[in-house]
Design a protein that fits this description.
This protein is an alpha+beta fold and 153 residues long. Helix content is 41%, strand content 22%. It contains three helices and five strands, in the order H-H-E-E-E-H-E-E. A hairpin with a 2-residue loop joins strand 4 and strand 5.
């Protein structure tokens, strides 16, 4: 996982433990005051939310315990596409430029132009250098990209 990915997980874990956990406990207590718990929708919803929060806490703690954090800025750039690198590509067919950062599976967010190292695009790029071509096979068909820049940012 990248340093940014680790930081986001730690922030989420902190929020879950310090804010969300206590908010749901308050909601459960308030729902209990309404009487019969068997038919109390607020109580059941709060208990369900508590289960989700506790499961997410366990999930994040497990990921952080097993994570190998890679700081791309500490790796000397050699022009090759590696985990954590930001890659600028040019679609050979449309001449459109796209830019992706290759991150861990849990960090991938297409809106932020972060793609999983396990994605078809990343797998086609890993190990290649600026100037190389990469053919990406997706369910929509094959696309050819030229690697314009590889950055360690």
């Amino acid at each position: 996982m990248t340093v940014t990915g680790e930081q986001k997980l730690r922030e989420e874990l902190d929020r879950l433990k310090t804010t969300d956990r206590y908010d749901v406990v308050k909601a459960i207590a308030a729902a209990r005051e309404h009487g019969d718990l068997k038919e109390n929708a607020e109580y059941h919803a709060a208990k369900e939310q508590q289960g989700f929060i506790e499961a997410r806490i366990r999930d994040i703690e497990g990921k952080l315990a097993d994570a190998q954090v890679i700081d791309i800025t500490r790796i000397r750039p050699n022009g090759r596409v590696i985990f954590g690198a930001t890659v600028t590509l040019i679609d050979v067919e449309s001449d459109e430029e796209v830019r992706y950062r290759i991150v861990g599976e849990d960090e991938a967010d297409l809106k932020e132009r972060s793609i999983s190292v396990m994605s078809p695009v990343a797998r086609a790029l890993i190990g290649k250098s600026a100037g190389d071509s990469a053919v990406v096979t997706t369910p929509q068909g094959s696309r050819e990209y030229e690697i314009d820049r590889v950055e360690h940012i």
